[in-house]
Write a structure and sequence with these properties.
This protein is α+β, with helices and mostly antiparallel strands. The protein is built from seven helices and 19 strands. It has two domains: about 240 residues, Aminopeptidase (3-Layer(aba) Sandwich), CATH 3.40.630; about 80 residues, OB fold (Dihydrolipoamide Acetyltransferase, E2P) (Beta Barrel). The structure holds zinc ion (ZN).
């Protein structure tokens, strides 16, 4: 076991200390500091350093609550390693309760690793990355669906990288969507920099969803068990895991007609080939378009705003193999299947 070490950003948090800090990453028009809230829990025992980040998109709140819980939950006496919680990365977006950094609509999650001499987003990204991501060994970045949609709880990770796959599986979600993320995203940049990173997608923007938050807090605990940060805790097994690779059966079903959308599936988000997923009708109910499942699978994302124009995404369907299907059917039968479409 390694010796405990101080955590260095541009100050130092010694082993055995929890520090809640505000770190300046930019300035407002008024010249006031824009500060991100960060918690560092440096354990009394040596071990890896993990970062957790939330609200890189300012209106994605479930992860903010996960980090509040995680930051409060661990005592340095029982931690083997260091936890770095970046509670709110995109502070200007968070204050405005919107996804992007206001005014120029810059996406902080396309701005990593950032650059000191560049635009606002890249400067902010650079501060966050250099101070709080680079010193870490692995990380988890929390997101939700974009507004007016919702997503099933799942992990996104490049599982072709074995270190990333280990992390993704340790988080113990049922579903892992495998693939590279966009260039400039925290996940891509950190992973390519030797800091395996996964994204957790959970539910809706602008909400706290307690069931999902509880699961994510347990997922974090499971990751900490896997990496020996909490060596006495068990690594969780979610009952079934389905890894969908980038060539796997998955598709966004889109509207071909405009109108009012009514979801027809449920109460669980499992649909069989040919099932009606939703209908789109006009205001006079003279025209009805049925949208059917092109293959058997799980609906992992769906629109929330129930009006559509042609081309509008309606829902994200991923295929399941026979073994997974049988396990899901068994869980539904036994009343153990907890995924809901969250309409
Ligand atoms: Zn996001």
């Amino acid at each position: 076991m390694s010796d405990p070490k101080p955590f260095r950003y541009d100050a130092e948090v010694p082993p055995g200390e929890t520090r809640h800090l505000r770190y300046e990453i930019s300035e407002t028009y008024l010249g006031d500091p824009v500060e991100i809230p960060v918690t560092v829990v440096n354990g009394e025992h040596g071990g890896p350093t993990a970062f957790l980040s939330a609200a890189i998109h300012g209106d994605e709140l479930n992860g903010v609550k996960v980090l509040q819980e995680v930051a409060d939950r661990y005592d340095p006496a029982n931690v083997h390693g260091t936890l770095v919680c970046v509670h709110v990365a995109n502070v200007p977006g968070y204050l405005a309760q919107q996804r992007y950094i206001p005014i120029y609509d810059l996406d902080l999650n396309r701005s990593f690793p950032g650059r000191a001499g560049s635009n606002t987003a890249e400067r902010m990204a650079n501060q966050i990355y250099e101070r709080f991501v680079k010193p870490c060994d692995f990380g988890i970045d929390f997101h939700t669906s974009t507004r007016n949609r919702t997503t099933m709880y799942h992990v996104r990770a490049d599982t072709t990288n074995p270190d990333v796959e280990r992390l993704a599986r340790a988080f113990a979600s049922n579903l892992i969507l495998s693939g590279e993320a966009d260039p400039g995203s925290l996940r891509t940049v950190a992973t390519n920099d030797g800091i395996p990173t996964i994204t957790v997608e959970m539910g809706r923007a602008h909400r706290f969803q307690p069931e999902l938050i509880d699961r994510a807090v347990e997922g974090v605990e499971s990751v900490f068990a896997e990496y020996g940060i909490r060596p006495d805790e068990p690594v969780r097994w979610p009952g079934w895991t389905r890894v969908i690779d980038s060539n796997g059966d998955k598709t966004w079903l889109r509207a071909d007609t405009g109108g009012l959308v009514e979801m027809q599936y449920g109460p669980v988000p499992l649909v069989y080939e040919g099932d009606t997923i939703c209908t789109i009708t006009d205001h006079f109910k003279e025209r009805e378009k049925r949208v059917a499942a092109p293959f058997t699978g799980l609906i992992i994302g769906t629109l929330q705003n129930p009006v559509a124009a042609p081309g509008h995404p309606l829902c994200h369907l991923v295929g399941v193999d026979d073994a997974t299907l049988r396990e899901i059917e068994r869980e539904i039968e036994a009343g153990e299947f907890t995924e809901r479409p969250w309409m």
